[in-house]
Design goal:
By secondary structure, the protein is mainly α. It has two domains: 103 residues, Endonuclease Iii, domain 2, CATH 1.10.1670; 109 residues, Orthogonal Bundle (Endonuclease III, domain 1), CATH 1.10.340. A hairpin with a 7-residue loop joins strand 1 and strand 2. The chain is globular and about 55 Å long. The two termini are 31 Å apart.
Length: 244
Protein backbone atom coordinates (compact mmCIF):
# COMPACT_ATOMS: atom_id res chain seq x y z
CA UNK A 1 0.00 0.00 0.00
CA UNK A 2 1.37 3.41 -0.98
CA UNK A 3 1.43 6.25 1.56
CA UNK A 4 -1.42 8.76 1.52
CA UNK A 5 -1.15 10.60 -1.80
CA UNK A 6 -3.12 13.59 -0.53
CA UNK A 7 -0.47 14.87 1.88
CA UNK A 8 1.78 17.72 0.89
CA UNK A 9 5.48 18.01 1.64
CA UNK A 10 7.65 21.03 0.92
CA UNK A 11 10.78 18.89 1.40
CA UNK A 12 9.56 16.39 -1.18
CA UNK A 13 8.78 19.14 -3.67
CA UNK A 14 12.23 20.63 -3.05
CA UNK A 15 13.87 17.24 -3.53
CA UNK A 16 11.94 16.72 -6.76
CA UNK A 17 13.25 20.02 -8.08
CA UNK A 18 16.82 19.12 -7.12
CA UNK A 19 16.80 15.69 -8.82
CA UNK A 20 14.78 16.55 -11.94
CA UNK A 21 17.90 17.22 -14.02
CA UNK A 22 19.34 13.79 -13.21
CA UNK A 23 16.45 11.66 -14.51
CA UNK A 24 17.62 11.68 -18.12
CA UNK A 25 21.09 10.63 -16.97
CA UNK A 26 19.53 7.61 -15.28
CA UNK A 27 17.54 6.90 -18.44
CA UNK A 28 20.67 7.06 -20.60
CA UNK A 29 22.60 4.76 -18.26
CA UNK A 30 19.82 2.18 -18.35
CA UNK A 31 19.25 2.47 -22.09
CA UNK A 32 22.97 2.14 -22.81
CA UNK A 33 23.12 -1.10 -20.81
CA UNK A 34 19.84 -2.72 -21.79
CA UNK A 35 18.78 -1.12 -25.07
CA UNK A 36 15.12 -0.75 -26.18
CA UNK A 37 12.66 -2.88 -24.21
CA UNK A 38 9.82 -2.64 -26.76
CA UNK A 39 7.04 -2.76 -24.19
CA UNK A 40 4.23 -3.89 -23.92
CA UNK A 41 4.51 -7.39 -25.44
CA UNK A 42 1.04 -8.04 -26.88
CA UNK A 43 -0.86 -8.45 -30.13
CA UNK A 44 -3.63 -5.96 -29.39
CA UNK A 45 -4.59 -3.15 -27.01
CA UNK A 46 -7.13 -5.44 -25.35
CA UNK A 47 -4.44 -8.04 -24.65
CA UNK A 48 -2.40 -5.31 -22.96
CA UNK A 49 -5.37 -4.39 -20.77
CA UNK A 50 -5.89 -8.00 -19.74
CA UNK A 51 -2.18 -8.43 -19.05
CA UNK A 52 -2.07 -5.28 -16.90
CA UNK A 53 -4.76 -6.74 -14.64
CA UNK A 54 -3.37 -10.28 -14.52
CA UNK A 55 0.17 -9.12 -13.67
CA UNK A 56 -0.96 -7.70 -10.35
CA UNK A 57 1.20 -9.31 -7.61
CA UNK A 58 2.74 -11.94 -9.86
CA UNK A 59 5.55 -12.53 -12.36
CA UNK A 60 5.07 -11.83 -16.05
CA UNK A 61 5.85 -15.45 -16.94
CA UNK A 62 2.71 -16.50 -15.08
CA UNK A 63 0.68 -13.95 -17.01
CA UNK A 64 2.02 -15.23 -20.32
CA UNK A 65 0.73 -18.71 -19.47
CA UNK A 66 -2.69 -17.34 -18.57
CA UNK A 67 -2.97 -15.28 -21.75
CA UNK A 68 -1.86 -18.26 -23.81
CA UNK A 69 -4.67 -20.31 -22.26
CA UNK A 70 -7.20 -17.58 -22.98
CA UNK A 71 -6.09 -17.53 -26.61
CA UNK A 72 -6.18 -21.30 -26.92
CA UNK A 73 -9.82 -21.42 -25.83
CA UNK A 74 -10.86 -18.31 -27.73
CA UNK A 75 -11.47 -16.33 -24.55
CA UNK A 76 -9.24 -13.33 -25.19
CA UNK A 77 -12.25 -11.41 -26.40
CA UNK A 78 -14.43 -8.91 -24.52
CA UNK A 79 -17.72 -10.56 -25.46
CA UNK A 80 -16.52 -14.06 -24.55
CA UNK A 81 -15.18 -12.90 -21.18
CA UNK A 82 -18.57 -11.42 -20.33
CA UNK A 83 -20.38 -14.56 -21.52
CA UNK A 84 -18.55 -17.12 -19.41
CA UNK A 85 -18.97 -17.46 -15.66
CA UNK A 86 -16.30 -16.32 -13.20
CA UNK A 87 -15.34 -19.87 -12.26
CA UNK A 88 -14.55 -20.83 -15.85
CA UNK A 89 -12.64 -17.59 -16.42
CA UNK A 90 -10.75 -18.15 -13.18
CA UNK A 91 -9.64 -21.61 -14.25
CA UNK A 92 -8.37 -20.18 -17.55
CA UNK A 93 -6.22 -17.59 -15.77
CA UNK A 94 -5.26 -19.82 -12.84
CA UNK A 95 -1.52 -19.51 -13.54
CA UNK A 96 -1.63 -15.77 -12.79
CA UNK A 97 -2.45 -16.41 -9.12
CA UNK A 98 -5.39 -15.26 -6.97
CA UNK A 99 -7.40 -16.26 -10.02
CA UNK A 100 -10.84 -15.94 -8.45
CA UNK A 101 -10.16 -12.33 -7.48
CA UNK A 102 -8.63 -11.55 -10.86
CA UNK A 103 -11.52 -13.16 -12.73
CA UNK A 104 -13.91 -10.84 -10.89
CA UNK A 105 -11.71 -7.81 -11.57
CA UNK A 106 -11.29 -8.73 -15.22
CA UNK A 107 -15.01 -9.07 -15.72
CA UNK A 108 -15.62 -5.71 -14.06
CA UNK A 109 -13.07 -4.03 -16.29
CA UNK A 110 -14.35 -5.69 -19.48
CA UNK A 111 -17.89 -4.63 -18.63
CA UNK A 112 -16.67 -1.02 -18.50
CA UNK A 113 -14.71 -1.49 -21.73
CA UNK A 114 -17.72 -2.89 -23.58
CA UNK A 115 -20.03 -0.19 -22.21
CA UNK A 116 -17.54 2.34 -23.59
CA UNK A 117 -17.80 0.74 -27.04
CA UNK A 118 -14.84 -1.67 -26.87
CA UNK A 119 -12.89 0.54 -29.27
CA UNK A 120 -9.54 1.59 -27.79
CA UNK A 121 -8.96 4.18 -30.50
CA UNK A 122 -12.21 5.99 -29.74
CA UNK A 123 -12.05 5.57 -25.98
CA UNK A 124 -8.60 7.19 -25.79
CA UNK A 125 -10.13 10.40 -27.14
CA UNK A 126 -11.59 10.96 -23.67
CA UNK A 127 -8.07 11.92 -22.55
CA UNK A 128 -5.96 11.00 -19.53
CA UNK A 129 -7.81 12.80 -16.69
CA UNK A 130 -11.27 11.46 -17.59
CA UNK A 131 -10.07 7.95 -18.44
CA UNK A 132 -7.91 7.65 -15.33
CA UNK A 133 -10.85 8.68 -13.17
CA UNK A 134 -13.10 6.09 -14.79
CA UNK A 135 -10.49 3.33 -14.54
CA UNK A 136 -9.84 4.04 -10.86
CA UNK A 137 -13.58 3.75 -10.22
CA UNK A 138 -13.49 0.11 -11.37
CA UNK A 139 -13.10 -2.28 -8.46
CA UNK A 140 -9.61 -3.77 -8.34
CA UNK A 141 -8.03 -1.22 -10.69
CA UNK A 142 -5.43 0.75 -8.74
CA UNK A 143 -3.18 3.58 -9.84
CA UNK A 144 -0.39 1.43 -11.25
CA UNK A 145 -2.77 -0.75 -13.25
CA UNK A 146 -4.74 2.26 -14.50
CA UNK A 147 -1.58 4.07 -15.60
CA UNK A 148 -0.24 0.95 -17.34
CA UNK A 149 -3.48 0.61 -19.30
CA UNK A 150 -3.43 4.31 -20.22
CA UNK A 151 0.20 4.30 -21.30
CA UNK A 152 0.54 0.99 -23.10
CA UNK A 153 -2.98 0.11 -24.28
CA UNK A 154 -4.42 3.57 -24.99
CA UNK A 155 -0.98 5.01 -25.88
CA UNK A 156 -1.48 8.11 -23.75
CA UNK A 157 1.36 10.00 -22.03
CA UNK A 158 1.13 9.11 -18.35
CA UNK A 159 4.01 7.71 -16.28
CA UNK A 160 3.68 4.35 -14.54
CA UNK A 161 5.13 4.09 -11.05
CA UNK A 162 5.77 0.78 -9.30
CA UNK A 163 7.75 -0.78 -6.48
CA UNK A 164 10.91 -0.84 -8.59
CA UNK A 165 10.58 2.91 -9.17
CA UNK A 166 10.31 3.45 -5.42
CA UNK A 167 13.38 1.35 -4.73
CA UNK A 168 15.54 3.14 -7.30
CA UNK A 169 14.48 6.62 -6.23
CA UNK A 170 14.74 6.05 -2.48
CA UNK A 171 17.90 3.95 -2.49
CA UNK A 172 19.61 6.59 -4.59
CA UNK A 173 18.33 9.15 -2.09
CA UNK A 174 16.52 11.10 -4.78
CA UNK A 175 13.29 11.04 -2.77
CA UNK A 176 12.41 10.14 0.83
CA UNK A 177 11.14 6.67 1.69
CA UNK A 178 7.67 7.97 2.58
CA UNK A 179 7.17 9.46 -0.89
CA UNK A 180 3.72 8.74 -2.34
CA UNK A 181 2.79 7.21 -5.68
CA UNK A 182 1.45 10.49 -7.00
CA UNK A 183 4.56 12.41 -5.91
CA UNK A 184 6.83 10.01 -7.78
CA UNK A 185 4.57 10.20 -10.81
CA UNK A 186 4.61 13.99 -10.63
CA UNK A 187 8.42 13.98 -10.46
CA UNK A 188 8.72 12.17 -13.79
CA UNK A 189 5.87 13.93 -15.57
CA UNK A 190 6.93 17.35 -14.33
CA UNK A 191 10.57 16.85 -15.27
CA UNK A 192 10.51 14.96 -18.57
CA UNK A 193 9.15 15.82 -21.98
CA UNK A 194 5.52 14.72 -22.21
CA UNK A 195 6.25 11.83 -24.52
CA UNK A 196 4.53 8.46 -24.49
CA UNK A 197 7.48 6.60 -25.99
CA UNK A 198 9.90 8.05 -23.44
CA UNK A 199 7.56 7.27 -20.54
CA UNK A 200 7.05 3.70 -21.68
CA UNK A 201 10.72 3.02 -22.34
CA UNK A 202 11.84 4.58 -19.06
CA UNK A 203 9.32 2.57 -17.05
CA UNK A 204 10.31 -0.65 -18.81
CA UNK A 205 14.00 0.02 -18.14
CA UNK A 206 13.31 0.64 -14.46
CA UNK A 207 11.47 -2.68 -14.28
CA UNK A 208 14.43 -4.39 -15.98
CA UNK A 209 17.00 -3.00 -13.53
CA UNK A 210 14.60 -3.72 -10.68
CA UNK A 211 14.31 -7.37 -11.61
CA UNK A 212 18.05 -7.81 -12.10
CA UNK A 213 19.45 -5.59 -9.36
CA UNK A 214 17.07 -3.42 -7.32
CA UNK A 215 15.31 -6.31 -5.63
CA UNK A 216 13.93 -6.37 -2.09
CA UNK A 217 17.45 -7.56 -1.25
CA UNK A 218 19.52 -5.23 -3.37
CA UNK A 219 22.15 -6.64 -5.73
CA UNK A 220 24.19 -3.50 -6.43
CA UNK A 221 27.30 -5.08 -7.95
CA UNK A 222 27.26 -4.68 -11.73
CA UNK A 223 24.13 -2.49 -11.78
CA UNK A 224 24.27 0.19 -14.49
CA UNK A 225 23.22 2.72 -11.85
CA UNK A 226 25.79 1.60 -9.28
CA UNK A 227 28.18 4.53 -9.95
CA UNK A 228 25.38 6.93 -8.98
CA UNK A 229 24.52 5.10 -5.76
CA UNK A 230 25.37 7.04 -2.58
CA UNK A 231 25.06 3.90 -0.44
CA UNK A 232 25.64 0.20 -1.00
CA UNK A 233 22.69 -1.87 0.10
CA UNK A 234 23.28 -5.04 2.05
CA UNK A 235 22.56 -8.35 0.33
CA UNK A 236 21.24 -9.67 3.64
CA UNK A 237 19.07 -6.80 4.85
CA UNK A 238 15.82 -5.87 3.15
CA UNK A 239 15.67 -2.17 2.50
CA UNK A 240 18.40 -1.30 5.01
CA UNK A 241 21.13 1.04 3.73
CA UNK A 242 24.68 0.09 4.57
CA UNK A 243 27.59 2.51 4.32
CA UNK A 244 30.65 1.30 2.37
Amino acid sequence: MWPDSTRTSSSTRSSATDVAATLLDYYRDLHTRYGPQNWWPAESPFEIMVGAILVQSTKWQNVEKAISTLKTYGLLDPARILEIDEETLGLAIRSSGTYRVKARRLKGFVRWFVDRGADAGRIKELGVPRLREELLAIRGIGRETADAILLYAFELPTFVVDRYTWRVLTRHELLPEDVTYDEMKELFEGSLERNRELYGEFHALIVRVGIEHCRSKAKCAGCPLEPRLPRRYSETEIGAPERV
